[in-house]
Amino acid sequence: MIAEHLTLTNAAKQCPGRPSVNAVWRWCRKGVRSRNGEIIRLDHIRVGGRIFTSAEALNKFFSAVARADALHFNRAYLGMPTQKICNPAEDMQERVARANKLLEQTGF
Questions:
Q1: How far apart, in whole angstroms, are the C-alpha atoms of residue 87 and residue 85?
Q2: Which residues of the chain register pLDDT less than 70?
Q3: Pairing relationship of beta strands 39-40 and 50-54 according to DSSP bridges
Q4: In this predicted structure, what is the pLDDT of residue 44?
Q5: DSSP the chain
Q6: I want to staple 11 with a disulfide (CB 3.0 to 4.6 A). Which of 6, 27, 34, 104 is the partner?
Q7: How many CB atoms lie within 10 A of CB 96?
Q8: Alpha-carbon dihedral 58, 61, 65, 71, rounded to 10 degrees
Q9: pLDDT value at position 1?
Q10: 8 CB neighbour count, 10 Å cutoff
């Protein structure tokens, strides 16, 4: 069965909150990082130079993001460890601090 294909413009119009077409394109190409750190992408196809998705793919995408977020918040509510969400700026600061400490220890 072939699902009815939507252009990204039409997909954006059907989404709650009316996201921009660029946002829908990012969901296809880069995905969305959920609260638990998982990257979830919108299923799509490329036909020539155009990208299409479907209402079914949008529903699957939104449900997957909601499930991943719920898992994270349920674990946090129950006091269970949650996966650390990557923050490049904080990670860089930690690496710089470790490097400075190592330099101090070696006499530099």
A1: 6
A2: 1-3, 72, 74-91
A3: unpaired
A4: 95
A5: -PPPEEEHHHHHHHSTT---HHHHHHHHHT-EE-TTS-EE----EEETTEEEEEHHHHHHHHHHHHHHHHHHHHHHHTT---PPPP-HHHHHHHHHHHHHHHHHHTT-
A6: 6
A7: 10
A8: 120
A9: 42
A10: 21
Burial class (CB in 10 A: 0-12, 13-18, 19+), 23: middle
**Cβ distance 35 to 46 under 8 Å?**
no
Each residue's pLDDT tens digit, 55-77: 999 999 999 998 888 876 766 55
Q: How far apart are CA 105 and CA 74, in angstroms?
A: 43
Residue 30 corresponds to which tokens in the numbers above? 């880069």
Q: How far apart are CA 106 and CA 93, in angstroms?
A: 20
Instruction: Using CA atoms of 68, 70, 72, 73 in order, give the dihedral in degrees to the nearest 10.
Output: 160
